[in-house]
Fold this sequence. Notes:
It is globular and about 60 Å long. The chain has one domain (3-227, 302-331): Luciferase-like domain (TIM Barrel), CATH 3.20.20. Helix 2 packs across helix 3 and helix 2 runs parallel beside helix 13 (318-331). The longest helix has 21 residues, at 233-253. The protein is of the alpha/beta class. The chain is built from 13 helices and eleven strands. The strands form two sheets. It has an eight-stranded parallel beta barrel with strand order 1-2-3-5-6-7-8-11, surrounded by six helices. Helix 7 links the parallel strand 6 and strand 7 (188-191).
Amino acid sequence: MSSVIASTRFSVLDRSRTREGHDGPEALRDTVRLAQEAEALGYHRFWVSEHHGVPGVAGSAPTVLAAAVAAATSTIRVGTGGVMLPNHQPLVVAEQFGVLESLFPGRIDMGLGRSVGFTGGVRKALGRDKAAAEGFAGQLTELLGWLDGTQSVHPQVHARPAEGLRVPPFVLAVGEGAGIAAAAGLPLVVGDLRGREELLRAIDRYRREFRPSSWASRPYVVVSGTIAPAGSPEEARRLLIPEAWAMAYSRAHGVFPPLAPAERVEALAMTEKERGFYESGLRGHLHGTEEDVSAALESAIEETGADEVLVTTSTYDRAALTDSLRRLARIAELTV
Length: 336
């Protein structure tokens, strides 16, 4: 195995994608089962995401889901990728992670993002607008202050049971967000691996501007993306098809649908616009045989200098997804 891959941590992010013919509650239970499988395979972390009002995603309350995942596992780190801080009051976020860390000490990560609601209707329901993301740096400072007892916004208030607990924070961002992570001295999560030029710019800025903090003494970079090894190139491509079509449909119609079986997608009579988005969605991912993915991974890690890789693969076939994660674990020799 490559020494570059061997020195890199591997983790999993699951978005609790719904599948045609299956409901949201089943998608959430699938997430918990996938976490158990990832733990058995030796992955370092298992993270869940936050989406609101999206038909194809069941994961709307990441800290609640993280609690269920942590309760169903015993060793893997559990966290969020991420809680969208502009949607919440920092005190409430601190309290939620304080409860998680109190219940599952030493296993909780706090991944934080800058995004606001997917649509105007969702943003209105959340009581936020697009400008809310501009206050992320200040919200982040306040949140960290609730944890370490230094916040000065509300000096008579303390976050219980969060204050004094060490919950590792991560910033999910590119562009301006990379600068915010650097200024705060926090680990950075960037993606995806297809947009390599933008990715490298964000990482370079982050490392160049990083200021050590009580949370991190040096830059720490997590790169995320779809990584799909399979028994053959054709099988690996089939893993990509459901998500590629869901993304294409959302871009063409403004609605993000549940994942469809690969064979149904391949039989569709797509419009020219849909076809263009779909073909674009299939390109650039790290997929193929184990040998293909190993070589591509080594190159990506060397190019980015990543400390950790966060796998974000989604597909309709759960058994095929588990098999792909098992193959990746074998590539990285994760399983004990």
